[in-house]
Amino acid sequence: MASTRDNLQWPTGCLDLSNGTQVMGILNVTPDSFSDGGQYDQVERAVAHGLDMVAQGAALLDIGPESSRPGSEPVSSVEQIQRAIPVIEALVQQVEVPISIDTPDVAVARAALDAGASILNDITAGANEAMLSLAAKREVPIVLMHMQGAPKTMQQDPVYGDVVVEVRDFLLDRARQAEALGVLSRHVILDPGIGFGKTLEHNLVLLKHIDVLIETGYPVLVGTSRKRMLHELTGREDPIERNYGTAATVAWCVQAGVSIVRVHDVAPMVDVAKVARAINQTQ
């Protein structure tokens, strides 16, 4: 099984996880994402923002061509490809950090890999097993995320018996299926899916007990950035004003041993991660 202490390596690149939590910069190339929709839906602006995030310390970039906010509608493969591929093609010529494609669409994922992306990020955890087969064939890492329901309906009264156990068992099952289809265990990354079919209480319990996922031995990715749970806790309605709430969750994740945090505001969260790592690593 994979170790969260190992480097994440694949034929065309690597991600150093040996020195603690790494920061993934979110680059949504959509008109309708919940906090930054329309800001980076032009290629030039998207590329410039990606370069800025790398300069600020992002260890990897996650390109999102389809919003997965609560209530969102699916976007066609053609539209996702038109949004994402020019951005990926431009960025891979200018940055050395790995680029992830955030999509459950196999055609989009394949096009992104062809364009130079090297990590797959699937909010459906490979519900379409062709995605798992693609990861296996290309020998690239894949993020498997838990979601109850689908984005359009996921926040309509989500219910669990034991959310920590159910999320862990679901992700382990998907990891085993990925491995059965040829994905290397060291290429599997688990994401509890904060905000995806979960109430505030579910999200808090998952964060409180994130060690349960870390103890599986797989690298764990957590995305809390600007999410509604932070509005519920702080009263901050504007997602852009949820920076301090995001910072608190990032510090918690670093202390717990999460491998990757996925954020909108790279520079401050890199600082948070550096300080939290230094405290955590002091004997």
Account of the 3D structure:
This protein has 283 residues and is α/β, with parallel strands linked by helices. It has helices at residues 43-55, 77-92, 106-115, 129-138, 163-180, 200-208, 211-214, 228-234, 243-256, 266-281; strands at 8-10, 13-15, 22-28, 60-64, 99-102, 119-122, 142-145, 188-191, 221-222, 260-263. The model has no long low-confidence stretch (mean pLDDT 92). The strands form two sheets. An eight-stranded parallel sheet has the order 8-7-6-5-4-3-10-9. It has ten helices and ten strands.
Summarize the helices and strands and which ones pair or pack:
Elements: E1 8-10, E2 13-15, E3 22-28, H1 43-55, E4 60-64, H2 77-92, E5 99-102, H3 106-115, E6 119-122, H4 129-138, E7 142-145, H5 163-180, E8 188-191, H6 200-208, H7 211-214, E9 221-222, H8 228-234, H9 243-256, E10 260-263, H10 266-281
Parallel strand pairs: 3-4, 3-10, 4-5, 5-6, 6-7, 7-8, 9-10
Antiparallel strand pairs: 1-2
